[in-house]
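Example record

One chain of 133 residues, shown exactly as stored in the release files.
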Amino acid sequence: MSSLFTRIIDGELPGRFVHSDDKAVAFLSIQPLTAGHTLVVPRAEVDEWTDLDPALAAHVMTVAHTVGKALKLAYGCARVGVVVAGFEIPHTHVHVFPTETMADFDFIRATPMSDEDLEANRKRIVEALRRAV
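Predicted C-alpha coordinates for this chain:
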Protein backbone atom coordinates (compact mmCIF):
# COMPACT_ATOMS: atom_id res chain seq x y z
CA MET A 1 0.00 0.00 0.00
CA SER A 2 1.24 3.48 -0.84
CA SER A 3 2.21 5.84 1.95
CA LEU A 4 0.14 8.93 2.67
CA PHE A 5 2.88 11.04 1.07
CA THR A 6 2.93 8.94 -2.10
CA ARG A 7 -0.81 9.42 -2.36
CA ILE A 8 -0.33 13.20 -2.04
CA ILE A 9 2.50 13.17 -4.60
CA ASP A 10 0.36 11.12 -7.01
CA GLY A 11 -2.56 13.54 -6.65
CA GLU A 12 -4.85 11.02 -4.92
CA LEU A 13 -4.98 13.30 -1.88
CA PRO A 14 -4.75 17.10 -1.83
CA GLY A 15 -1.46 18.82 -1.12
CA ARG A 16 -0.33 22.43 -1.20
CA PHE A 17 2.88 22.15 -3.20
CA VAL A 18 5.56 24.84 -3.24
CA HIS A 19 8.15 22.77 -5.17
CA SER A 20 8.11 19.78 -7.47
CA ASP A 21 10.81 18.15 -9.58
CA ASP A 22 11.53 14.63 -10.84
CA LYS A 23 13.15 13.54 -7.54
CA ALA A 24 11.42 15.44 -4.73
CA VAL A 25 8.47 17.60 -3.79
CA ALA A 26 7.78 20.14 -1.07
CA PHE A 27 4.32 20.79 0.32
CA LEU A 28 2.82 22.43 3.39
CA SER A 29 2.17 20.47 6.56
CA ILE A 30 -1.53 20.40 7.46
CA GLN A 31 -0.53 20.35 11.14
CA PRO A 32 2.29 22.89 11.19
CA LEU A 33 4.66 23.75 14.00
CA THR A 34 4.61 27.33 12.69
CA ALA A 35 3.05 29.09 9.69
CA GLY A 36 4.98 28.06 6.58
CA HIS A 37 5.97 24.60 7.90
CA THR A 38 6.91 22.68 4.75
CA LEU A 39 7.68 19.01 4.20
CA VAL A 40 10.34 18.06 1.67
CA VAL A 41 9.70 14.52 0.46
CA PRO A 42 11.52 12.35 -2.06
CA ARG A 43 9.25 10.82 -4.70
CA ALA A 44 10.84 7.44 -3.93
CA GLU A 45 9.00 5.79 -1.07
CA VAL A 46 11.86 5.09 1.34
CA ASP A 47 11.00 4.82 5.04
CA GLU A 48 14.22 5.96 6.73
CA TRP A 49 16.33 8.85 5.46
CA THR A 50 19.49 6.88 6.16
CA ASP A 51 18.34 4.35 3.55
CA LEU A 52 18.14 6.97 0.79
CA ASP A 53 20.68 6.77 -2.01
CA PRO A 54 23.29 9.42 -1.08
CA ALA A 55 22.61 11.43 -4.25
CA LEU A 56 18.87 11.52 -3.49
CA ALA A 57 19.54 12.44 0.15
CA ALA A 58 21.72 15.32 -1.08
CA HIS A 59 19.00 16.45 -3.48
CA VAL A 60 16.33 16.38 -0.74
CA MET A 61 18.57 18.52 1.48
CA THR A 62 19.27 20.91 -1.40
CA VAL A 63 15.52 21.38 -1.86
CA ALA A 64 15.16 21.84 1.92
CA HIS A 65 17.92 24.48 1.80
CA THR A 66 16.17 26.36 -1.02
CA VAL A 67 12.82 26.19 0.77
CA GLY A 68 14.52 27.33 3.97
CA LYS A 69 15.93 30.42 2.27
CA ALA A 70 12.45 31.22 0.93
CA LEU A 71 10.90 30.77 4.39
CA LYS A 72 13.47 33.14 5.88
CA LEU A 73 12.60 35.69 3.19
CA ALA A 74 8.83 35.19 3.45
CA TYR A 75 8.52 35.19 7.24
CA GLY A 76 11.53 37.21 8.45
CA CYS A 77 12.10 34.62 11.16
CA ALA A 78 15.13 34.39 13.44
CA ARG A 79 16.02 30.91 12.12
CA VAL A 80 14.70 28.18 9.90
CA GLY A 81 14.35 24.85 11.66
CA VAL A 82 15.02 21.48 10.06
CA VAL A 83 13.95 18.16 11.56
CA VAL A 84 14.15 14.64 10.15
CA ALA A 85 12.14 12.54 12.60
CA GLY A 86 10.42 9.86 10.55
CA PHE A 87 7.96 8.56 13.12
CA GLU A 88 4.71 9.92 11.71
CA ILE A 89 4.67 8.52 8.16
CA PRO A 90 6.87 5.66 6.85
CA HIS A 91 8.20 7.81 3.99
CA THR A 92 11.29 9.98 4.39
CA HIS A 93 10.46 13.65 4.90
CA VAL A 94 12.28 16.74 6.10
CA HIS A 95 10.38 19.29 8.18
CA VAL A 96 11.45 22.85 7.29
CA PHE A 97 9.82 25.68 9.23
CA PRO A 98 10.24 29.30 10.33
CA THR A 99 11.25 29.50 13.98
CA GLU A 100 11.89 32.08 16.65
CA THR A 101 12.83 29.82 19.60
CA MET A 102 13.59 26.18 20.44
CA ALA A 103 10.00 25.89 21.72
CA ASP A 104 8.92 25.95 18.04
CA PHE A 105 10.52 22.48 17.66
CA ASP A 106 7.98 20.84 19.99
CA PHE A 107 5.72 18.66 17.84
CA ILE A 108 3.15 18.56 20.65
CA ARG A 109 2.44 22.22 19.78
CA ALA A 110 1.60 21.43 16.13
CA THR A 111 -1.94 22.52 15.31
CA PRO A 112 -4.18 22.14 12.27
CA MET A 113 -4.49 25.14 9.97
CA SER A 114 -7.50 26.21 7.91
CA ASP A 115 -7.52 25.67 4.16
CA GLU A 116 -7.57 29.44 3.66
CA ASP A 117 -4.51 29.96 5.86
CA LEU A 118 -2.67 27.05 4.21
CA GLU A 119 -3.33 28.51 0.77
CA ALA A 120 -2.21 31.98 1.88
CA ASN A 121 1.02 30.47 3.22
CA ARG A 122 1.54 28.46 0.03
CA LYS A 123 1.26 31.62 -2.08
CA ARG A 124 3.61 33.48 0.27
CA ILE A 125 6.26 30.75 -0.01
CA VAL A 126 5.93 30.36 -3.80
CA GLU A 127 6.43 34.11 -4.19
CA ALA A 128 9.47 34.02 -1.91
CA LEU A 129 10.89 31.09 -3.91
CA ARG A 130 10.58 33.19 -7.07
CA ARG A 131 12.41 36.07 -5.39
CA ALA A 132 15.06 33.81 -3.84
CA VAL A 133 16.14 32.16 -7.09
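Notes: The two ends are 37 Å apart (CA to CA).
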